[in-house]
Amino acid sequence: MNAPLGALADAIVLPQPYLLFLGDTTEPSFAKTAFGLADWAADRCVGEFGVDGCAVSTGLPRMTPAEAREAGARSLVIGVANQGGVIGERWITALVEAMEAGLDVVSGLHVRLDSIPALADAARRTGRRLIDVRSPPPGIPVGTGRKRSGKRLLTVGTDCALGKKYTALALHRAFVERGLDADFRATGQTGIMIAGGGIPMDAVVSDFEAGAAEILSPDAPADHWDVIEGQGSIFNPAYAAVSLGLLHGSQPDVFVVCHDPTRKVILGLEDFALPSVEEVVDLTIRLGGRTNPAIRCGGVSLNTSSFGAQEAEALMAAERERLNIPVADPIRGGTAFAELVDSCLA
Amino acid sequence: MNAPLGALADAIVLPQPYLLFLGDTTEPSFAKTAFGLADWAADRCVGEFGVDGCAVSTGLPRMTPAEAREAGARSLVIGVANQGGVIGERWITALVEAMEAGLDVVSGLHVRLDSIPALADAARRTGRRLIDVRSPPPGIPVGTGRKRSGKRLLTVGTDCALGKKYTALALHRAFVERGLDADFRATGQTGIMIAGGGIPMDAVVSDFEAGAAEILSPDAPADHWDVIEGQGSIFNPAYAAVSLGLLHGSQPDVFVVCHDPTRKVILGLEDFALPSVEEVVDLTIRLGGRTNPAIRCGGVSLNTSSFGAQEAEALMAAERERLNIPVADPIRGGTAFAELVDSCLA
């Protein structure tokens, strides 16, 4: 369980444990959030709940909201994307049933749950909460740049959507396995559900972006690590503002560059070449040095999911040779990943 | 009058001409917005309006809201700060009178006018609008980085509050005086009132920061200039996210660095040294090059308001010598400023 973020950010601490809602989903790729929670927060999930037609499973026990409440669940988390942005009648019935059973409802969908009258009514009637993890908490302050106690690691990237969340989770797990005092600090919706709290950094007003990152990783004991989920890339022409505010406010001691070697252009913006890992290292040190002059690169997290084991090994070895820093794929783990962890903690 | 920003940003075009509201202000420094409007948008201000106790004047003719409406005014602009954040009874009576006379009310105050019941009621009753220039328009898209036609100049800074708005206004005026087709693009509340439209960049959600800057300076004829008001500084640990999103989305061909030689530390963050002009030039080219590889520095706008004429001249000459680029104080104008304009247009 994460350390509390203080009075302000308590507003976004999610009630746990969870019941995972799978809706009537038949396609596993729509249930990524549920699988992510089952992978990374299994100890805080009592079971799963689907309605008629549901054909996917996380492997957790199936139960009704009432059974889940009995088993200790405090909220139902919508673990699936709704196709076409519309929440159907069957979902609404299920969510109302959950509230009647005493569960809050946690959502990362684009549609705000309280904009659906049947859900807003049920929430009022039952006294349960509809919690939208895409909405930042109120009262985020302007950044100050003040140096905070404790240690911080931030995952950064050559682009969006290539492993920054996964890398932060894997590093956090490795730190804990080594007996260190560490928290995973979530900055996006799935990460927030996994952590049980956090701040959706892309939804914060620009003026408060660095301030939000500051309250996300508050003062901590000197040997405590916050492992912070990165967002976007300082080279992404659409999202660099998010990335720079997060970098400045996180004041990381160490960063890990996440990269997908098959990605040649920025996702969705094909006129923009992907920056090299070296460019990201260099610019991150330059910009991050503003709030932490001691910032350093811990290594590279290489997403080798498109490659076979041998190819992946060769690719990582070549990158290690070329860059002269640890290179690992957290999904493959092994000695390479242990070396990356060593380097981050050095 | 500025060129339209297209359907989206039409939402923030302010009804002009204005009647300037001075409230019951006795202290000129609280009426900076009114003075700014009288200086830079005198042709779009029909007069000024104060209530009992008002002891400041912009020099514009005093008139009642009804007289102003008769003279063509379409909105009353609150040109003064309200002390302590409270809007008193006398102000409310005056603003209601303005709406009854047929004027919309434009405000840059922190308090939202529609949160004051008497004003919200009067707006409903009279059919007039309460326009808050601190609120960005709805529907701002994510940035694309797509190269737009026309030319763009952005003022950047070593810090906040040292002349970026003034410099952009002065350069825009100089461009127009030279017969060029140019628009001033406003990014802060006073600038928006002067321009009659714009986007309050610091209030935009981070994910859309670059996208907001993109719609602020849309495609234009090849020889058209948008002169864009800068915000913050990429070296400011609180506000760099705003500055980088604005830089990426503006894709400027030319930037001018605004600097106050008496400022040694970041305003309000005294542990942070002010960056040098050279550092700002270098990092702006590096970051801005991502969306416009041809970006270049046009020169330096030096705020010499703390110095006598001779000292200011010597200071500018020394900086010119040291940096080998044009250095001018737009408030002092003269040959130095003409050279800065030449350099921007070169």
From TrEMBL, chains A, B:
<dbReference type="InterPro" id="IPR027417">
    <property type="entry name" value="P-loop_NTPase"/>
</dbReference>
<dbReference type="Pfam" id="PF17396">
    <property type="entry name" value="DUF1611_N"/>
</dbReference>
<dbReference type="InterPro" id="IPR035086">
    <property type="entry name" value="DgcN-like_C"/>
</dbReference>
<protein>
    <submittedName>
        <fullName>DUF1611 domain-containing protein</fullName>
    </submittedName>
</protein>
<dbReference type="InterPro" id="IPR035402">
    <property type="entry name" value="DgcN-like_N"/>
</dbReference>
<dbReference type="Pfam" id="PF07755">
    <property type="entry name" value="DUF1611"/>
</dbReference>
<feature type="domain" description="D-glutamate N-acetyltransferase-like C-terminal">
    <location>
        <begin position="142"/>
        <end position="335"/>
    </location>
</feature>
<dbReference type="InterPro" id="IPR011669">
    <property type="entry name" value="DgcN-like"/>
</dbReference>
<feature type="domain" description="D-glutamate N-acetyltransferase-like N-terminal">
    <location>
        <begin position="58"/>
        <end position="136"/>
    </location>
</feature>
